[in-house]
From TrEMBL:
Site (Positions MEP for the nucleophilic attack): R150, K206
PANTHER family (alphabetical): 2-C-METHYL-D-ERYTHRITOL 4-PHOSPHATE CYTIDYLYLTRANSFERASE, CHLOROPLASTIC (PTHR32125)
Keywords: Isoprene biosynthesis, Nucleotidyltransferase, Transferase
Enzyme kind, highest EC tier: transferase
Entry's family note: Belongs to the IspD/TarI cytidylyltransferase family. IspD subfamily.
Name of the protein: 2-C-methyl-D-erythritol 4-phosphate cytidylyltransferase
Pathway: Isoprenoid biosynthesis; isopentenyl diphosphate biosynthesis via DXP pathway; isopentenyl diphosphate from 1-deoxy-D-xylulose 5-phosphate: step 2/6
InterPro entries xrefs: IspD (IPR001228), IspD/TarI (IPR034683), IspD/TarI_cytidylyltransf_bact (IPR050088), ISPD_synthase_CS (IPR018294), Nucleotide-diphossugar_trans (IPR029044)
SUPFAM superfamilies found in the cross-reference section: Nucleotide-diphospho-sugar transferases
Catalytic activity: 2-C-methyl-D-erythritol 4-phosphate + CTP + H(+) = 4-CDP-2-C-methyl-D-erythritol + diphosphate
Taxonomic source organism: Pseudoalteromonas lipolytica
EC number: 2.7.7.60
Length: 225
């Protein structure tokens, strides 16, 4: 099976309140994007690593060539547009499966990725890494109106692993129909295709706000030792 990785890295990271987009912030000696790409580059089964980079954030030429399988593609307005651009750039010589992983999740561990891929290939179904919700969840605007039962609630992580053509079709149709798409699985669910939930480590955080940086630096340092 030919597997290509896609790394959406074209966000501006407005919630980080930092001058550079968050994927270019340096932690434990490397940028967040470099950490993420180095992790993926350790996986021999990946054929190509397509990184979606913004055309106008000034970093298009700054992609670390740490591995010969890394290729750049222009990102889009939203995360889903960036992923779709990357998918369409593979259309001439498409892979069987794609593994989509946020640039902003450098802490993913390799054994979680291989388990996701193995479980999905064995079941012949797409799937995502996810972790069971731990906190008590409330619904409301200014006051809590309801406590949401959490026994079947999961936090969606990445990577997300789907058959190439199914993801192209689901994402293009969902975007054309104005569906809100915050991850690949939301498009696949909308297309009524299966999304397997594969339990992954909850420290695979998406670096989003300034307080995530200290935690991520600590965890990256711990992984490197
Ligand atoms: O903004 P958020 O944290 O949800 O972004 C998740 C990932 O998607 C990040 O790695 C970000 O760089 C990427 N992204 C993208 N293109 C966009 C917006 C976000 O590739 N237009």
């Amino acid at each position: 099976q030919k597997i290509t990785a896609i790394v959406p890295a074209a966000g501006v990271g407005s919630r980080m309140q930092h001058s550079a987009p968050k994927q270019y912030i340096e932690l434990a000696g490397k940028t967040i994007l470099e950490h993420t790409l180095s992790k993926l580059a350790e996986l021999d089964f990946i054929h190509t690593i397509k990184v979606a980079i913004s055309d106008d954030d000034g970093y298009f030429d700054a992609i670390p060539q740490i591995d010969s399988r890394i290729e750049r593609v222009s990102g889009g307005t939203e995360r889903a547009d960036s992923v779709l651009n990357a998918l369409l750039s593979l259309a001439d010589n498409p892979p069987d499966w794609v593994l989509v992983h946020d640039a902003a999740r450098p802490l993913v561990c390799l054994s979680d990725i291989t388990r996701l891929v193995d479980d999905c290939l064995a079941a012949n179904e797409g799937g995502i890494l996810a972790s069971k919700v731990k906190d008590t969840i409330k619904r409301g605007r200014t006051h809590s109106e309801q406590t949401v039962p959490r026994d079947d609630l999961w936090q969606a992580l990445t990577p997300q692993f789907f058959p190439y053509q199914a993801l192209v079709d689901a994402l293009s149709n969902a975007l054309e129909n104005g569906v809100t798409i915050t991850d690949e699985a939301s498009a696949i669910e909308w297309a009524k295709q299966p999304v397997k939930l594969v339990a992954g480590r909850s420290d695979n955080i998406k670096i989003t706000t300034p307080e995530d940086l200290d935690l991520a630096a600590f965890l990256l340092q711990k992984q490197q030792n």
